[in-house]
Design brief:
It is a single chain. This protein is mostly helical. It contains 5 helices and no strands. The chain has one domain. α1 packs antiparallel against α2, α2 runs parallel beside α5 and α4 packs antiparallel against α5. The C terminus is likely disordered. The complex comprises the extracytoplasmic solute receptor protein and the two transmembrane proteins. Its main location: membrane.
Length: 171
């Protein structure tokens, strides 16, 4: 499970990095040399979709999406768990058909390509569809773990605090 989450985090971060590099590179080339990267706009849109779907997978698994916890904060642990189970079940009920429909889109894309380089859109859509499928699978895993009372497996990894220097480390 940790490997899948680590892979999803890496994929989402990689695509965010690619968006930043593509955008910054295009701005630099446009301002300095008055040229632009072919398909930078289409590429950045496709990469953003991929990053969103993979990020949605992580937010779903960790239960860390943007939410208002007014009700949840006032519940006892048993009520919190019940609300988490209900929310995850509703999320799964939406993500599973969405994943299916993204795969339908992949199948119906045909030979469509980007404007300048004619890069096949099906490749971008397929990577996004895998991300949405991972989101649906992780929602199902989260639901099962919540039903079994094993929420501890769903916590995002903690950022390790820097270790305090030891007396033997010297100045």
């Amino acid at each position: 499970m940790r490997r899948l989450l680590s892979a999803a985090e890496t994929v989402a971060a990689l695509f965010l990095l690619l968006i930043a590099l593509l955008t910054a590179g295009n701005v630099l080339l446009r301002d300095v040399f008055s040229v632009q990267i072919p398909d930078w706009y289409d590429g950045s849109r496709m990469l953003q979709g991929i990053a969103l779907f993979w990020g949605l997978a992580l937010a779903t698994c960790y239960g860390s999406h943007i939410c208002v916890d007014i009700v949840w904060e006032h519940l006892r642990p048993r009520g919190r768990r019940a609300l988490d189970v209900a929310a995850t079940a509703v999320t799964l009920a939406f993500l599973a058909p969405l994943a299916w429909m993204v795969w339908v889109k992949v199948g119906s894309t045909g030979t469509q390509g980007t404007m300048d380089l004619r890069l096949p859109l099906v490749n971008f859509y397929a990577v996004a569809a895998v991300g949405m499928t991972v989101a649906a699978v992780l929602a199902a895993v989260r639901l099962v773990l919540l039903l079994r009372g094993r929420e501890a497996l769903l916590e995002p990894p903690a950022l390790d605090a820097p270790a305090a220097p030891k007396a033997s480390d010297g100045p």
